[in-house]
Amino acid sequence: MHARKRWPASSPLLSSPALPACGDALGAAGTQLLAAAVLPVQFFSPSARSYTERGEAALMRAVLEDALHCVAKQFSHRGRRSQRLAREAEAWFFAEDEHWPFAFVNICAVLGLDPAYVRRGLTRWCLQRRTAPHTGSPRAAPLRTAA
Fold first, then answer.
1. How far apart are CA 30 and CA 26, in angstroms?
2. What share of the chain is helix, strand, coil (3-state, %, to 5)?
């Protein structure tokens, strides 16, 4: 039998992956934080699974759908709450904030949507609802969502 070659304890093969120099300055806590960090390419890369199967993406899709429903509800419910939620949702749709994980532009990136395209469609839909003659029906035409 061949003897197994033993690596010294200080071998780079047995040590943790190389971390940036700032990990040393932060000590053990910094090393743990850097090792647990998720890179954008890891989070945003397409996987073999459908986005609806991943928990994070399913939650982001639900947030987007809820915002769309809040905007749509302003045309069927005239209460102050519906109007306030619609204003908040519209502000969220048109914000350029990228710092919050559930910001509209970040959700679009994860779901593979073009934010400008969604905004144009939402604007067009709202203009049609505002200028459409009232037919007596309290319900607005539903927004189409992907199945």
1. 5
2. 55, 0, 45
DSSP, collapsed to helix, strand or coil, labels residue 68 as helix
Helix axes 115-131, 80-94, angle to 10 degrees: 150
CA angle 112, 41, 37 (to 5 degrees): 125
Q: How confident is the model at residue 70 (pLDDT cuts 50, 70, 90)?
A: very high
Q: What is the pLDDT of residues 72-96, one digit of tens each?
A: 998 888 889 999 999 999 999 999 9
CA 125 vs. chain centroid, Å, equals: 23
Nearest alpha-carbon partner for 71 in 132, 117, 124, 133: 124
Region of residue 84 (left: phi > 0; alpha: psi -120 to 50; beta: else):
alpha
